[in-house]
């Protein structure tokens, strides 16, 4: 039987399976190594012609999947591009090595238990789980890239129309998991997968938690520093869905501006300083209870007053209602932040087709006629396509 890492005995030549990455709008060859489980559609190639499917193959067994190439390696898992020998679909294989004395990592158990119950167009789909003595493998749907890589490919900020579609899908996915009392707790561009159509899918639920029962025991060591809200930075452990909303607001700005909203470098103190410089230092009047949080020490920070957001992030002033949307997502006091449901009905989305608000959970927004991504202005693969005047940038590319 085939193991996940056994390529040499594949019933078709391995060198015939060339990595063929898909750009959002056009087919391109990428020379960029990516650190997560993203992939491409078949791109017109028929692997079925060279691969003989065996009868009797079933889900839950390693022999049902063939490893094609290694995509990346993390602290507790290695991700491979693979193909299902059951139906020929490309998949992402997240292989978790189990230590004899520790067994299955708790984060893997939590991720599996949560994802098995999530069925939504904007949540990455878990197809299968394979367990052996040495490994636990998650078999995910195969998605082309992630938002972080997409923004690298299109520096300087994305097309405002595309930003709107991405944010709508992000909030749609968050509304779905929040209705089920699940917090993602690790929103960042690298954990948002983007398909060749432009479908955005929440991924990497290793830090996610179910909040079905009120708890004050959550860890404050969640969310990558740049996307961590001030309440968590200040040591709050009784957070709720507002945790994810702050991350969505940071990602919204990053998509428009082309750079992170609050790029702290060293520690929590510097990250808070970045936030206070824009939003001002909170007080008991603006944030009841803030002075009681473990990390609140006024002597650490110079007095700061709130700034107008469009003066800090210029592109907010160029897109109707974008500044107001941002101000409601990036509220220091968690209870003042919009919910995902409320954000979906903000005026910022007033010009999108009404059918998008009536879709079933499993339906992609791109099923609605006329909904599609626009061509990005800047493209590192073809820098002269639309922005011929950006000579300085072209030299960098």
Number of helices: 10
Stretches where pLDDT is under 50 for at least 5 consecutive residues are 1-50, 213-217, 385-397
Binned strand content? 5-15%
Can you give the helix content as a percent range?
Answer: 10-25%
The CATH homologous superfamily of the largest domain is called Transferase(Phosphotransferase) domain 1
Average pLDDT: 81
Q: How many E strands?
A: 10
Terminal Cα span: 46 Å
Globally, the shape reads: globular
What count of structural domains? 2
Task: Please trace the helix and strand order, writing H or E for each element.
Answer: EEEHEEEHHEEEEHHHHHHH
Query: Radius of gyration from the CA trace?
Result: 22 Å
- The strand order across the widest sheet is 1-2-3-5-4
CATH class of the largest domain: Mainly Alpha
Report on the biggest sheet: 5 strands, antiparallel
The CATH topology of the largest domain turns out to be: Transferase(Phosphotransferase), domain 1
CATH architectural arrangement of the largest domain: Orthogonal Bundle
What structural class do the secondary elements suggest?
alpha+beta
Task: Throw out a few tags for this protein.
single chain; 397 residues; alpha+beta; Phosphorylase Kinase, domain 1; 2 domains; 5-stranded antiparallel sheet; 3-stranded antiparallel sheet; 10 helices; disordered N terminus; disordered C terminus; cyclin-dependent kinase; transferase
Describe this structure in words.
The chain is α+β, with helices and mostly antiparallel strands and 397 residues long. It folds into 2 domains: 15-141, Phosphorylase Kinase, domain 1 (2-Layer Sandwich), CATH 3.30.200; 146-367, Transferase(Phosphotransferase), domain 1. The chain is built from 10 helices and 10 strands. It has helices at residues 106-115, 147-153, 160-179, 230-233, 242-257, 268-279, 309-312, 322-329, 340-344, 391-396, and strands at 65-73, 77-84, 90-97, 126-131, 135-141, 145-146, 182-183, 192-194, 200-202, 209-210. The strands form 3 sheets. Strands 1-2-3-5-4 form a 5-stranded antiparallel β-sheet, with helices on one face. A 3-stranded antiparallel β-sheet has the order 6-8-9. Strands 7-10 form a two-stranded antiparallel sheet. It is globular and about 65 Å long. The termini are far apart. The model is unreliable at 1-50, 213-217 and 385-397 (pLDDT under 50).
């Amino acid at each position: 039987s085939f193991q996940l890492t056994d390529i040499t005995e594949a019933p078709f030549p391995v060198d015939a399976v060339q990595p063929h990455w898909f750009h959002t709008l056009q087919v391109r060859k990428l020379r960029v190594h990516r650190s997560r489980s993203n992939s491409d559609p078949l791109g017109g190639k028929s692997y079925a012609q060279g691969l003989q499917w065996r009868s009797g193959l079933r889900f839950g067994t390693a022999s049902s999947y063939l490893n094609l190439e290694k995509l990346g390696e993390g602290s507790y898992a290695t991700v491979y591009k693979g193909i299902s020998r059951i139906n020929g679909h490309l998949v992402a294989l997240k292989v978790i090595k189990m230590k004899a004395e520790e067994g299955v990592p708790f984060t893997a158990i939590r991720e599996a238990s949560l994802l098995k119950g999530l069925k939504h167009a904007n949540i990455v789909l878990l197809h299968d789980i394979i367990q052996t003595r040495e490994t636990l493998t998650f078999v995910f749907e195969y998605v082309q890239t992630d938002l972080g890589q997409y923004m690298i490919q299109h520096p300087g900020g994305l097309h405002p129309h595309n930003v709107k579609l991405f944010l709508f899908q992000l909030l749609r996915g968050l509304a779905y998991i929040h209705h089920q009392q699940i917090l993602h707790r690790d929103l960042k561009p690298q954990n948002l997968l983007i398909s060749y159509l432009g479908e955005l899918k929440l991924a990497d639920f290793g830090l996610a938690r179910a909040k079905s029962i009120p708890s004050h025991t959550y860890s404050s060591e969640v969310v990558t520093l740049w996307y961590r809200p001030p309440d968590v930075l200040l040591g709050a452990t009784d957070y709720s869905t507002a945790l994810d909303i702050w991350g969505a607001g940071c990602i919204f700005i990053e998509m428009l501006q082309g750079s992170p909203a609050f790029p702290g470098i060293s520690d929590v103190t510097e990250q808070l300083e970045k936030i206070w410089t824009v939003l001002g230092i909170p007080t008991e009047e603006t944030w009841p209870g803030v002075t009681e949080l473990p990390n609140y020490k006024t002597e650490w920070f110079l007095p700061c007053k709130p700034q107008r957001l469009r003066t800090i992030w210029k592109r907010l002033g160029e897109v109707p209602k974008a500044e107001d949307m941002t101000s409601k997502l990036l509220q220091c006091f968690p209870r003042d932040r919009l919910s995902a449901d409320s954000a979906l009905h903000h005026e910022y989305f007033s010009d999108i087709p009404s059918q998008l608000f009536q879709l079933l959970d499993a339906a992609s927004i791109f099923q609605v006629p006329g909904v599609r991504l626009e061509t990005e202005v800047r493209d590192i693969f073809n820098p002269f396509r639309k922005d011929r005047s950006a000579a300085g940038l072209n030299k960098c590319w």
